[in-house]
Specification:
With 391 residues, this protein is an alpha+beta fold. It folds into 2 domains: 309 residues, BirA Bifunctional Protein, domain 2; 56 residues. The chain contains 13 helices and 16 strands. A 9-stranded mixed sheet has the order 1-5-6-12-11-10-7-9-8, sandwiched between helices. Strand 15 and strand 16 form a beta hairpin. Helix 5 packs antiparallel against helix 10.
Length: 391
């Protein structure tokens, strides 16, 4: 095995990217704090049963598993929102909170299985104890604000509602597992398998026709009339009513041009309970942000707390910034300081005086002017036992 290689789906982040990543985190922190969110950090290691023994269980093949010293099975954090739902239900005490986080989650499925990254660096927010269209609209608007704050241009929020697809599939008499299988097929653009599953379940031609149209139901508010014409299912129509109200609020709030509606969106029908959305930029072929409403997640941990939120994939943000031409060059240090032999203490003190002013300083370990001239910096200083010279 080559020591130069990493496992599939993980990567090192080098100094230039780390600097931009730190800048993005700082920008997002300012936006989160300015809007009243509090920081939280869930444990990186949890018991396997926390995620395998709940109603919204995660597939075991998606989790990195290992054993504790007592033989109990542990996992690396596979999902940020479930972790924070556990914290909200068991530790926060109150029923309402607005939280933000920066953390990693791990997905054990290999890149060959369709996951490009197995170590996912995220930032995100959770709005706990909130319900209604205005909460949903605020969350979507804030997601757009966060993408802009990260430095991205031409951001779009692609907004849907799982209730519409659930309503269509409900008419077929599908179980939750069957409906999720159909959803997964539609998400994989495998319409033939979705239609096969529906026909096997006894779906009527009217329902099959509506499901075939789902991928075309995207655009502006005009999609609502088309969607209503395809079904009389109460759940689907209620989802459209709610989505239309959210759209009207977003228009009032000034975000109409940054939102499109997509009723064929393929997010999990069991995990999400209502509105769902993704943050898109042209330069990246996958969402840089993903979120929605998940009112039932905290129930798995013993307390009902309605919630809505989103997570930002920070590696994808870096890719988008680079492709948008917003990846700055590695900055030069403000100053390089060299010295003659015997003046090390004086050079150290002078360098510290510059860093105390907030400047980035490189204190050379090589002696003499030649090393100083070779150093990359905006300013150069040479320290002798008698004086400091600006070169």
């Amino acid at each position: 095995m080559s020591l130069k290689k990493l496992p599939t789906g993980v990567q090192d982040i080098l100094p230039r990217e780390c600097r931009v990543l730190g800048d993005v985190r700082a920008r997002l922190t300012r936006v989160f704090e300015a809007n009243g969110y509090e920081p939280v950090l869930s444990a990186a290691v949890e018991y396997y049963d926390t995620y395998a023994g709940i109603r919204n269980a995660l597939p075991q093949e998606r989790m990195f598993k290992f054993t504790d010293s007592d033989g109990r099975l542990l996992v690396l954090r596979p999902d940020a929102t479930l972790s924070i739902s556990r914290i909200a239900a068991t530790k926060l005490g109150g029923d309402r909170a607005r939280l933000y986080y920066f953390l990693d989650k791990w997905d054990a499925q290999s890149a060959d299985g369709g996951v490009k990254s197995r170590e996912i660096i995220q930032a995100g927010v959770e709005r706990l104890g909130e319900e209604g269209a205005f909460s949903d609209a605020q969350t979507i608007a804030f997601a757009i604000d966060c993408m802009r704050a990260a430095g991205l241009s031409d951001c779009i929020a692609d907004v849907g509602h799982v209730g519409y697809m659930k309503g269509l599939l409900e008419e077929c008499g599908l179980s939750g597992a069957q409906a999720e299988e159909v959803r997964a097929s539609l998400n994989a653009k495998d319409g033939l398998n979705a239609e096969r599953l529906l026909r096997n379940a006894g779906a009527r031609e009217e329902t099959l026709s509506a499901v075939r149209v789902l991928p075309t139901l995207f655009g502006g508010a005009e999609v609502f009339d088309r969607a209503r014409s395809l079904t009389k299912n109460a759940l689907a129509l209620a989802a459209l009513d709610h989505l239309e109200r959210v759209g009207a609020l977003l228009k009032e709030m000034g975000y109409e041009r940054s939102v499109c509606f997509d009723l064929g969106t393929g997010k999990s029908l069991s995990y999400y309970s209502g509105i769902v959305f993704s943050g898109l930029v042209r330069e990246v072929g996958a969402p840089v942000l993903s979120g929605g409403r998940y009112d039932g997640l905290a129930d798995d941990f013993g307390k009902h707390i309605p919630a809505v939120g989103f997570a930002i994939g920070l590696k994808r943000v870096l890719v988008a910034l680079e492709r948008q031409g917003k990846f700055p060059a590695q900055p030069l240090p403000d100053a390089a300081v060299g010295c003659e032999q015997g003046a090390e203490g004086a050079a150290w003190e002078f360098a510290r005086s510059l860093t105390a002013q907030g400047r980035r300083v490189t204190l050379l370990t090589e002696y003499g002017m030649q090393a100083l001239y070779a150093a990359d910096a905006r300013e150069r200083y040479f320290v002798t036992a008698k004086e400091v010279q600006k070169i």
